[in-house]
Amino acid sequence: MNELIDIVVRARHGSKDDFVRMIRMFEKTLYRVAFGMLRSDEDAADAIQETIIAAFRQIHQLQEPRYAQTWLVRILINHCNGMLKRKNQVIPLYEHDTIIASSPDQPSEDKLDLYHAIGLLGPEQREVIMLHYLEDMPLKEIGELLQLSDGTIKSRLYRAREKLAMLLKGPVQEEGML
């Protein structure tokens, strides 16, 4: 943790090498969040690139170095949401090939079903499920990141778990489900 803080402090003071080190420390997290929201490798790469550019320009605004990951993920989520709004993109209901080809650790059939079910959730529920379960973020940190109360986060998680349980139990109805 101290190493991260040192890297972030040096990056805030203009060290480009340390900024790159900081980004590399969080690149897997950034990819998983971007892909989970956008469901496309190309769109995820674009969102991450825009996030890195914005973070580089705004690194001086990062108040607390230990929250660098939270800060980067918040910028990324904003870019992903902006991309979804601009494109009026509909989240694909089923993309076996994309998920298999792009997942960092080649998911089993069970994981594939889970990723598919997560893709069927609404954006707000998908965000909290991914951050809490796939990125192991505590509820309080998710609340700070999304600027929502703990109660709202818990409520979204509860509803998302209910929908996931329903989706994973039976055949998926593609319309009118959510």
TrEMBL record:
Keywords: Sigma factor, Transcription, Transcription regulation. InterPro entries: RNA_pol_sigma-70-like (IPR039425), RNA_pol_sigma-70_dom (IPR014284), RNA_pol_sigma70_r2 (IPR007627), RNA_pol_sigma70_r4_t2 (IPR013249), RNA_pol_sigma_r2 (IPR013325), RNA_pol_sigma_r3/r4-like (IPR013324), WH-like_DNA-bd_sf (IPR036388). Transmembrane segments: none annotated. PANTHER family: RNA POLYMERASE ECF-TYPE SIGMA FACTO, RNA POLYMERASE SIGMA FACTOR. NCBIfam families: sigma70-ECF. GO terms for molecular function: DNA binding; sigma factor activity. Residues 22-87 form the RNA polymerase sigma-70 region domain. It comes from Paenibacillus cellulosilyticus. This is RNA polymerase sigma-70 factor (ECF subfamily). The keyword Transcription regulation applies. Gene3D superfamilies: 1.10.1740.10, Winged helix-like DNA-binding domain superfamily/Winged helix DNA-binding domain. GO terms for biological process: DNA-templated transcription initiation. The keyword Ligase does not apply. The lineage of its organism: Bacteria, Bacillati, Bacillota, Bacilli, Bacillales. Belongs to the sigma-70 factor family. ECF subfamily. Residues 113-164 form the RNA polymerase sigma factor 70 region 4 type domain.
